Amino acid sequence: MQRRWANITLGIALALFLIGLAFHRQVWAPYLESMALAGLAGGVADWYAVTALFRHPLGLKWLPHTSIISANRERIIEAISSLVETELLSVSFIEANIEKLEIGRKIVEFLDKPLDPVLQTQLRDTLSQLLDFIPEDKLALYLEEFTSDKVADIQVSDYIVRLIKWLVQSENDRVLFQFVARHVVEVLNSVEFTEDMEARLKDMLEKYTKTTTQKLVLGVLESLGTVDYKDLSVTVKAQLIEWLQSDKAFEQFELAIVRIMITVRDDSALRERIEKAKNDLVAAVPWDRAVNWVMTEVRTQVSGDQLWTGLSHVAGDIADSLRSYPERQAQLENMIKHLTVSVLHRYHPLIGRLVRDNLRHMDEREWIDKLEWYVGRDLQWIRVNGAIVGGLVGLILAFLIHFL
Fold first, then answer.
1. Is the overall model pTM greater than 0.85, yes or no?
2. Would you state the pLDDT for residue 212?
């Protein structure tokens, strides 16, 4: 549209010049000729200048300094990418705007809001579609191969030795012994263990009495109530508990785990059995069924409402925690800003590279057309203004020449 007006302006100037020539004997004709001629000169000069920016005027490639944008394409691309990277989207500018953001407050406000039903439906559908894209058989095979390779590099025997050595040196073996002893005492104090102990003591004494005389004496003692298996089991249990709470029991426990450490360290056959058991355990894992079960559970949770309800509750709890502890909110905000700035410093050159690559991927015709579309329309008004201003200047000069 602007180019049409520019061409119309040149046509009007040419028509006025022809009118001035046709009526050159009239008094006003010289003024009209001067105005039209100056307008034509200004309009044609500006047409040449505007056209020379984008292409060769009249297709004459031998004219100097024409098709300027195409000839300086690389320099213009570098200038545009540098302008975007270092000025319009510079690191300091982005950092300053990131610093102004109240990220902590916006996170709390976002977590406080209930999840929009439409967004929840979209998320559910998207996650379901993503889960359908996962090939379970390939995932199971990958997990099996990955786990087998990683586990094969792990020497369980060495870790057992290191663990026991660390327990002894850090005196955490006493904590472990107290933990074990506490649970053993709970077992000893249970009714089931007391009854089992009583039965076993009775069976043991009956097996110990081998002769007829011994059996007769044992029967008499039992009938007289001298041998009470319940009291005997309680006594044995009390002695065991007392021994577990003594330093002697801990010394025996420590000695036992040290012996285990030395055996695992020095016995090559035992080490081989441990490593073989490790590999057999990994090989026995039904990866296909495990992956299928996990995927089924995930699909069930995604399609149901329990997951989203739980997420809403968790989001609300996090929002309450951040609101109750402003220092945590400030810490979270600083962490996000620091992470964002570090990512910005690392990947900021990609901005200029993206602009540069995108511009270079355009062919010359597309490149010129886009620039002319965005800029050329306004440049056409230069032609209009050139013709009008040139005509006015020509008219003024005609008056000056005539009167002065």
1. no
2. 56
